[in-house]
């Protein structure tokens, strides 16, 4: 072989080796690139899963918080005291949510039984203001605000003797009326009210007291309470008189937890037939004045102690309780009240209160 051929062959071999080396390098780079890409894709996928898991966890946490919200609200809605109520609730038109654990049906039965018991204790319960006609009753009721019926009854004879009709009182000298009404307290405001309502009666109703609620409440000084006193006792039209005694007792007996007089009226009206409303008012008010006092109720001498969920708030000892009863002229006026002992058992104590034992 010639030297030229040998050199050519060596060059060809060197070129082939170089070509194989380049191909190997490319193959290696390709493999590395593919592995790197796969690794990057895997990392990206893992990161995506982690992000999705975090989002799902956050969403689940948020959902759990939303689901727990009603439970927290439910705890707030369930008050420990029967008088608690949510703000903004509509006036009660039916027995829907009585306070405590008592069912609506049980509440109606207990409330009506209490009224029947009080009807036996106070069969002649009536408005304790002296009056002879609707005009005298509406004036006396307006004057009874912030004072006692006894004080009003001591004042009105002189007033009605001097001004017997709405026309007379409408034309009266305010200073003279103030002197007559001074013992009632707030005599200037009350003078303005009775003269104002007298003028309204003369100008708008021909000098007669109207027999409709919507007309009565238009008179100066006359609200729903006064209007129902007049309607129930002068016109025989049923109405619930929500005075301070009535409000206090119906909450103490857990007939309602409302505090607004209009809502109390609606709630109690749903417990009784309309025909009972006027007498019910008298029974409750008389009981509040004579036995179930605001600060020291005479629980030990109370005829409805077994039905009262508040039994024990006052004096339970029979002898001490009897001293808390408010008698007038040797007894409760205008009704046949049995002596307190008649409502006690053989052992000298009332029957166990509602829910006891």
UniProtKB/TrEMBL annotation:
<dbReference type="Pfam" id="PF00730">
    <property type="entry name" value="HhH-GPD"/>
</dbReference>
<dbReference type="InterPro" id="IPR000445">
    <property type="entry name" value="HhH_motif"/>
</dbReference>
<keyword id="KW-0479">Metal-binding</keyword>
<keyword id="KW-0238">DNA-binding</keyword>
<feature type="binding site">
    <location>
        <position position="292"/>
    </location>
    <ligand>
        <name>[4Fe-4S] cluster</name>
    </ligand>
</feature>
<dbReference type="InterPro" id="IPR011257">
    <property type="entry name" value="DNA_glycosylase"/>
</dbReference>
<dbReference type="InterPro" id="IPR023170">
    <property type="entry name" value="HhH_base_excis_C"/>
</dbReference>
<feature type="compositionally biased region" description="Low complexity">
    <location>
        <begin position="1"/>
        <end position="55"/>
    </location>
</feature>
<feature type="domain" description="HhH-GPD">
    <location>
        <begin position="143"/>
        <end position="290"/>
    </location>
</feature>
<dbReference type="InterPro" id="IPR004035">
    <property type="entry name" value="Endouclease-III_FeS-bd_BS"/>
</dbReference>
<feature type="binding site">
    <location>
        <position position="299"/>
    </location>
    <ligand>
        <name>[4Fe-4S] cluster</name>
    </ligand>
</feature>
<dbReference type="InterPro" id="IPR004036">
    <property type="entry name" value="Endonuclease-III-like_CS2"/>
</dbReference>
<feature type="compositionally biased region" description="Low complexity">
    <location>
        <begin position="62"/>
        <end position="81"/>
    </location>
</feature>
<protein>
    <recommendedName>
        <fullName>Endonuclease III</fullName>
        <ecNumber>4.2.99.18</ecNumber>
    </recommendedName>
</protein>
<keyword id="KW-0456">Lyase</keyword>
<feature type="binding site">
    <location>
        <position position="302"/>
    </location>
    <ligand>
        <name>[4Fe-4S] cluster</name>
    </ligand>
</feature>
<keyword id="KW-0326">Glycosidase</keyword>
<dbReference type="GO" id="GO:0046872">
    <property type="term" value="F:metal ion binding"/>
</dbReference>
<keyword id="KW-0408">Iron</keyword>
<dbReference type="InterPro" id="IPR003265">
    <property type="entry name" value="HhH-GPD_domain"/>
</dbReference>
<dbReference type="GO" id="GO:0051539">
    <property type="term" value="F:4 iron, 4 sulfur cluster binding"/>
</dbReference>
<dbReference type="GO" id="GO:0140078">
    <property type="term" value="F:class I DNA-(apurinic or apyrimidinic site) endonuclease activity"/>
</dbReference>
<comment type="function">
    <text>DNA repair enzyme that has both DNA N-glycosylase activity and AP-lyase activity. The DNA N-glycosylase activity releases various damaged pyrimidines from DNA by cleaving the N-glycosidic bond, leaving an AP (apurinic/apyrimidinic) site. The AP-lyase activity cleaves the phosphodiester bond 3' to the AP site by a beta-elimination, leaving a 3'-terminal unsaturated sugar and a product with a terminal 5'-phosphate.</text>
</comment>
<feature type="region of interest" description="Disordered">
    <location>
        <begin position="331"/>
        <end position="357"/>
    </location>
</feature>
<feature type="binding site">
    <location>
        <position position="308"/>
    </location>
    <ligand>
        <name>[4Fe-4S] cluster</name>
    </ligand>
</feature>
<dbReference type="Pfam" id="PF00633">
    <property type="entry name" value="HHH"/>
</dbReference>
<keyword id="KW-0255">Endonuclease</keyword>
<keyword id="KW-0227">DNA damage</keyword>
<comment type="similarity">
    <text>Belongs to the Nth/MutY family.</text>
</comment>
<dbReference type="GO" id="GO:0006285">
    <property type="term" value="P:base-excision repair, AP site formation"/>
</dbReference>
<keyword id="KW-0004">4Fe-4S</keyword>
<dbReference type="Pfam" id="PF10576">
    <property type="entry name" value="EndIII_4Fe-2S"/>
</dbReference>
<keyword id="KW-0234">DNA repair</keyword>
<dbReference type="GO" id="GO:0003677">
    <property type="term" value="F:DNA binding"/>
</dbReference>
<dbReference type="InterPro" id="IPR005759">
    <property type="entry name" value="Nth"/>
</dbReference>
<feature type="region of interest" description="Disordered">
    <location>
        <begin position="1"/>
        <end position="104"/>
    </location>
</feature>
<dbReference type="InterPro" id="IPR003651">
    <property type="entry name" value="Endonuclease3_FeS-loop_motif"/>
</dbReference>
<keyword id="KW-0378">Hydrolase</keyword>
<keyword id="KW-0540">Nuclease</keyword>
<keyword id="KW-0411">Iron-sulfur</keyword>
<dbReference type="GO" id="GO:0019104">
    <property type="term" value="F:DNA N-glycosylase activity"/>
</dbReference>
């Amino acid at each position: 072989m010639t030297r030229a051929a040998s050199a050519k062959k060596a060059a060809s071999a060197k070129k082939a080796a170089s070509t194989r080396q380049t191909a190997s390098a490319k193959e290696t780079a390709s493999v590395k690139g593919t592995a790197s890409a796969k690794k990057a894709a895997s990392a990206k996928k893992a990161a995506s899963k982690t992000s999705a898991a975090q989002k799902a966890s956050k969403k689940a946490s948020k959902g759990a918080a939303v689901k727990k919200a009603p439970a927290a609200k439910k705890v707030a809605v369930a008050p420990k005291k029967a008088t608690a109520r949510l703000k903004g609730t509509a006036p009660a038109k039916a027995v829907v949510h009585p306070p405590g654990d008592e069912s609506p049906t049980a509440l109606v039965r207990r409330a009506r039984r209490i009224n029947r018991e009080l009807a036996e204790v106070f069969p002649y319960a009536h408005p304790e203001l002296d009056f002879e006609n609707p005009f005298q009753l509406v004036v006396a009721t307006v004057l009874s605000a912030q004072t006692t019926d006894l004080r009003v009854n001591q004042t009105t004879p002189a007033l009605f003797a001097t001004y017997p009709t709405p026309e007379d009182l409408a034309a009266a000298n305010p200073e003279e009326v103030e002197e007559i009404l001074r013992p009632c307290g707030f005599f200037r405001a009350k003078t303005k009210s009775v003269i104002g309502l007298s003028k309204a009666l003369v100008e708008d109703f021909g000098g007669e007291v109207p027999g409709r609620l919507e007309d009565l409440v238009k008179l100066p000084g006359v609200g729903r309470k006064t209007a129902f006193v007049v309607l129930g006792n002068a016109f025989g039209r049923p109405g619930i008189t929500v005075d301070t005694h009535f409000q206090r007792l119906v909450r103490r007996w857990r007939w309602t937890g409302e505090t607004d007089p209009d809502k109390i009226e609606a709630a109690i009206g749903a417990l009784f037939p309309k025909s009972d409303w006027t007498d019910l008012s008298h029974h409750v008010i008389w009981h509040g004045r004579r036995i179930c006092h605001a600060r020291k109720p005479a629980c030990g001498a109370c005829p409805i102690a077994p039905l009262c969920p508040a039994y024990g708030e006052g004096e339970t000892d029979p002898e001490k309780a009897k001293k808390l009863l408010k008698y007038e002229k040797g007894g409760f006026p205008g009704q046949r009240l049995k002596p307190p002992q008649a409502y006690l058992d053989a052992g000298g104590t009332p029957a166990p209160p509602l829910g006891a034992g």
